[in-house]
Automatic annotation (TrEMBL):
Location in the cell: Cell membrane
Domain of life per record: Bacteria
Gene name in the database record: prsW
Keyword Zinc: no
Keyword field: Cell membrane, Hydrolase, Membrane, Protease, Transmembrane, Transmembrane helix
Protein family per UniProt: Belongs to the protease PrsW family.
Protein name: Protease PrsW
UniProt organism field: Paenibacillus solanacearum
Length: 230
C-alpha cells in the first residue's frame, strides 16, 4: 500500500463515525467549526497521554488489569472528559442534550484517529488489520464518547443531578474502556468470542442513548410548536 492509501485507510473510520453521529443530531446540528475544534484537540491529546502512559508503565508495570483500567482507560478518558468539559460544556452552542454526544465523540475520535495513524505507520500491518481496528479500537472510542457525552448532556440540562452525571460521564467510559482493553489483553487467541458480544452491546446501548438524548431536546418542543402554528 502507498503512504497515501495507508493514511486514508487509517483516517477514514474516524471521519466516517464522526459524520454518522453528527448527522444523528435531529434538531440543531452543531457548528462544524466547533466539532472540528474538538476533533483536533482530541488529536493533540495523543501526545501528552503517550508521555504519561509511558511513565505509568515504568512506575506501575504492565499487569493486564492495571494497564487496562489505569494506564490506558483512566488516563485517556480523563483527558477527553477534561477537554470536553472545559472547552465546550459551558459554551452557548451546547444547547441540547445530544450536543454532549457530538462533542465527546469528536474528541474521542480525534484521539482514536491519530492513534490509528501511528499504528498504521509503525506496525507491520495490512489493510485487513486497519479494517479490524476500525471495527474495534476506533469504534470503541466512539462508543466511550457516546457514554461520556450522554451523561454530560444529562448533567447540563438536569441541574439537580449534575454532579452525579458529571461523575458518570467520567467513570462509565473508564469502566467500559477498561473492560474492552482487558478483554483484548487476556483473550489473545479467542478474543472474538468476547469482543463481538461486547461491541454489540455497546453499539445497541449507544444507539439507545442517541435516541434518548434526541428525544429530550428542548428544541423538539419548539419545532413541534412551530409546525402546529404553520
Amino acid at each position: 500500500m502507498s503512504v497515501l492509501s495507508v493514511l486514508m485507510a487509517a483516517i477514514a473510520p474516524g471521519v466516517a463515525l464522526l459524520s454518522y453521529f453528527y448527522l444523528k443530531d435531529r434538531y440543531d446540528p452543531e457548528p462544524i467549526s466547533q466539532v472540528l475544534k474538538l476533533f483536533l484537540f482530541g488529536v493533540l491529546l495523543v501526545f501528552p497521554i503517550m508521555v504519561l502512559q509511558r511513565a505509568l508503565v515504568q512506575g506501575l508495570g504492565e499487569h493486564p488489569f492495571v494497564f487496562a483500567f489505569v494506564t490506558s482507560a483512566a488516563t485517556e478518558e480523563f483527558f477527553k472528559w477534561f477537554l470536553v468539559y472545559f472547552v465546550i460544556y459551558k459554551h452557548t452552542s451546547f444547547d441540547e442534550p445530544y450536543d454532549g454526544i457530538v462533542y465527546s465523540v469528536a474528541a474521542s475520535l480525534g484521539f482514536a484517529t491519530l492513534e490509528n495513524v501511528f499504528y498504521a505507520f509503525f506496525n507491520a500491518s495490512g489493510f485487513s488489520a486497519l479494517m479490524m481496528r476500525a471495527f474495534l479500537p476506533v469504534s470503541g472510542h466512539a462508543m466511550f464518547g457516546v457514554i461520556m457525552g450522554y451523561h454530560l448532556g444529562k448533567a447540563k440540562f438536569n441541574p439537580d443531578a449534575s454532579r452525579k452525571h458529571l461523575s458518570y460521564a467520567l467513570l462509565l467510559p473508564i469502566f467500559w474502556h477498561g473492560v474492552f482493553d482487558y478483554t483484548m489483553l487476556v483473550t489473545k487467541t479467542y478474543w472474538i468470542w468476547f469482543m463481538v458480544p461486547l461491541m454489540t452491546f455497546l453499539w445497541i446501548r449507544s444507539l439507545w442513548k442517541v435516541s434518548h438524548a434526541n428525544a429530550r431536546s428542548p428544541l423538539r418542543v419548539i419545532q413541534r410548536e412551530e409546525q402546529v402554528k404553520i
